[in-house]
TrEMBL record:
UniProtKB keywords: Hydrolase
InterPro entries: B_lactamase-like_C (IPR048933), Metallo-B-lactamas (IPR001279), RibonucZ/Hydroxyglut_hydro (IPR036866), Sec-metab_biosynth-thioest (IPR050662), WH-like_DNA-bd_sf (IPR036388)
Matches recorded under Gene3D superfamilies: Ribonuclease Z/Hydroxyacylglutathione hydrolase-like (3.60.15.10), Winged helix-like DNA-binding domain superfamily/Winged helix DNA-binding domain (1.10.10.10)
Recorded GO MF terms: hydrolase activity
Organism: Ramlibacter tataouinensis
One Pfam short name: Lactamase_B
Annotated Metallo-beta-lactamase domain residues: 42-263
Coiled-coil boundaries: none
The keyword Hydrolase appears for this protein: yes
Protein name: Zn-dependent hydrolase
Keyword Hydrolase tagged: yes
Length: 351
């Protein structure tokens, strides 16, 4: 455990849910953990005991990617963990594949409505039908304009035309909109919606004051920093500032809140973790400034500054988006200037 993690508290220790089963965290709140075929090898999902439109049952929060292994785990959960009751509602925190991938199947399987922010619903629907932002020629050209010119990497990104649809083949045809500031009644308890930006278009976290719980989605993770990326569909964006402003909203919640993250273990130390994330990104920004003072830098040039380990292609695409995000944060703050060189690559220099 890192020194930063030691400042957090893990009430359940190393206890994890058994695959295909769930673990009770509070009355009517159950934790599911499913595997993912990536370096980030799992996602946490949540079952909330509910009564919705006159039906007793459960609300699911997040779904896992669309694949047979996840469906099989869900089927086992349906058989053993629901006390004979149905899924009555599906809530998705945001549009990334590990969160929304199986929403279509769960909603069809149980005739249950999807609740999600409108921005993320439409982003998921678009991405499931195209290559926008996740691969294909436009993404390859965008990363090339920021210095990723390795021919093999560029060709592989161009070829990733089915990346998002392979994990999110479709989304439900209808949805109920969630917005920051909304209150959702789940099982007779009020859950407040807290919007977050920078990681996804309009991420929704859920806080229940009576239970002292925060379903933080990807906005607040205990061990890793959330990916914050610039994509080709919004090439001039400033997501890092949006993210840091968003996590400051959690400072209004009690410090003893039990945080239920999408990756890692439930933890306490909410305010401490917000402070750690601010410090982490400030350190990275200072390293980027120092590099840009030494010589003009592209986002590809900055990769070894921000990431000390060797990256595979999957990791490199996320890392490139994050590298651009850090450069853009400094550029918008007036600490860097940029120019496009003769090769068409954006390079940033300290002002």
């Amino acid at each position: 455990m890192s020194p930063l993690e030691q400042r957090l508290q893990y009430p359940l220790g190393d206890t994890l849910p058994v695959p295909g089963e769930s673990l009770e965290l509070a009355d009517g709140v159950r934790w599911i953990r499913m595997g993912l075929p990536f370096q980030l090898d799992h996602i946490n999902l949540w079952l909330l005991r509910d009564q919705f439109e006159g039906r007793e049952g459960w609300t699911v929060v997040d779904c896992c990617i669309s694949r047979e292994e996840a469906q099989a785990q869900w089927e086992r959960i349906f058989e053993t963990q629901l006390q004979g009751l149905p899924i009555v509602r599906v809530i998705v925190t945001h549009m990334h594949p590990d969160h929304v991938g199986l929403a279509w199947w769960l909603c069809e399987r149980w005739n249950a409505p999807l609740w999600i922010s409108a921005t993320d619903y439409n982003a998921a629907r678009l991405a499931s039908q195209s290559t926008t932002g996740f691969g294909g020629p436009a993404a390859a050209d965008f990363f090339a304009s920021h210095g990723l010119t390795d021919p093999d990497a560029v060709e592989k990104i161009k070829a990733r035309t089915g990346y998002y649809p392979s994990m999110v083949p479709q989304v439900p045809r209808q949805f109920r909109r969630l917005q920051g500031g909304d209150t959702v009644s789940i099982g007779g308890l009020d859950w407040s919606c807290i919007s977050g930006f920078g990681h996804a278009p309009e991420h929704i976290a859920l806080h229940c004051g009576e239970l002292g719980l925060l379903i933080s989605g990807d906005m607040l993770l205990p061990r890793i920093s959330t990916n914050i990326s610039v994509h080709d569909i919004e090439p001039e964006s400033n997501p890092l500032r949006l993210f840091l402003e968003s996590i400051d909203k959690f400072r209004a919640l009690p410090e003893e809140t039990l945080v239920l993250p999408s990756h890692g273990k439930p933890f306490r130390g909410l305010h401490e973790r917000v402070r750690q994330l601010h410090e982490h990104h400030e350190e990275r920004l200072q390293e980027v400034i120092a590099a840009c003072k030494a010589a003009p830098q592209s986002a590809a040039d900055v990769l070894p500054v921000l990431f000390k380990r060797k990256l595979d292609l999957h990791q490199t695409t996320f890392a490139m988006g994050e590298s651009i995000a850090h450069l853009h944060a400094l550029w918008y703050d007036g600490l860097l200037s940029r120019r496009r060189d003769a090769d068409g690559v954006w390079r940033f220099t300290a002002t």
